[in-house]
Amino acid sequence: MERVRTRPANLILAGLIVLFGVVFFVVVQRSGRADSALLFVVLPTVLAAGLALQPGRSTHGRVFRLTTIGLLLAAVAAHEGAICVVLAAPLVYLLAHGITALVRMGGGSRRLTVLLPLPLLLTGVEGVQPDWRVHPDQSVQVSREAQVDPAALPALLAAGPQPQDARPFALRLLGVPTPEHVHGSGLTPGDGWMFGYHGSSHGPGGQIVTEVVAAGPSEITFAVVEDSSITGRWVGMRDATLSWQPGEHGGSEVTLRIGYRRGLDPFWYFGPLQDRFMHAGAEHFLNMLNLP
Q: Max Cα separation, the chain?
């Protein structure tokens, strides 16, 4: 079998990647986030450099290698926003290999090489301008049976939610952050709840502050007055409604509706993805209420 040698261009690319990683590693350390630098900077840099040293054996192989290097470097630059890169990776691979296949089908024709990828590239203009978005405001709704009389629920809910280590699978899969401490109580208009995200040595993860804006005998509505949380990079919380009614088999049926603004585009790809993660987040919040 013929051995494919590593060309000087591969070595230069690998060297530039390592330099890129070193710069970001220093930046992350100086910002007090050294404990996460290994995961979010060193690991992607090493993987990208390793890929750069591998010579391509085919057109699609080279496209895969360069696309992966680009994604890894984007993850380094995004740091803990790398979750967004992971979510986008399947779409990026699909477009990269799809355009490569179309160009190859063109048989080297310059006109086809330019025209064939255009329909795919046009899908990327969504979100370039604030008005160029499709249904960015969405909502999710989750219900759960609770073995408690509806009349007793307000007193139980007024104590407020408590952080939970156990998380739905969708949140664990990508390591989506969840609140680590909650402050506040009460269900009367003006009462507020603050959901704080991780405060480890690499800095605070921000917070979500809500305020009760309406309260009825079986429904509480919250407005989000501040969202500086780490999750705000890909989704913006707007409001939430917690309601309850007698359950079909006794007890209560508790329903949580969360309104949010999608932060990632295009809608046809990230819309369903964020809907699934928001459903998991709503389920986690109901877990935090410790309903019997």
A: 78
Whether pLDDT at 33 is above 60: no
What does pTM read for this prediction? Answer: 0.70
Mean pLDDT of 137-154: 91
**DSSP characters for the chain?**
-PPPPPPHHHHHHHHHHHHHHHHHHHHHHHTT-HHHHIIIIIHHHHHHHHHHTSPP-SHHHHHHHHHHHHHHHHHHHHGGGHHHHHHHHHHHHHHHHHHHHHHHHTTT-HHHHHHTTHHHHHGGGTTSSTTS-SS-EEEEEEEEEESS-GGGHHHHHTT-----S---HHHHHHT----SEEE----STT-EEEEE---STT----EEEEEEEEE-SSEEEEEEEEE-SGGGGTEEEEEEEEEEEE-BTBSEEEEEEEEEEE-SS-HHHHHHHHHHHHHHHHHHHHHHTT--
Q: Side chain identity at 119, as an amino acid letter? A: P
Q: Give 139's contacts (C-beta < 8 A, 6+ positions apart).
A: 257, 258, 259, 260
68-91 tens-digit pLDDT: 877 777 777 665 566 777 777 887
The residues spanned by each domain of the chain are 8-125, 137-288
Q: How far apart are CA 178 and CA 167, in angstroms?
A: 8
Query: How confident is the model over 154-173, as a mean pLDDT?
Result: 84
Q: Which two tokens stand for residue 239?
A: 């409001």
Tokens 């939430």 locate to 240
Q: Which CATH superfamily is domain 137-288 in?
A: START domain (3.30.530.20)
Phi-psi sector, 153: left (phi>0), alpha (psi -120 to 50), beta = alpha
As a whole number of angstroms, the distance between CA 286 and CA 289 comes to: 5
- 204 contacts 232 by C-beta, under 8 angstroms: no
pLDDT of res. 41: 53
Mean per-residue pLDDT, 169-182: 83
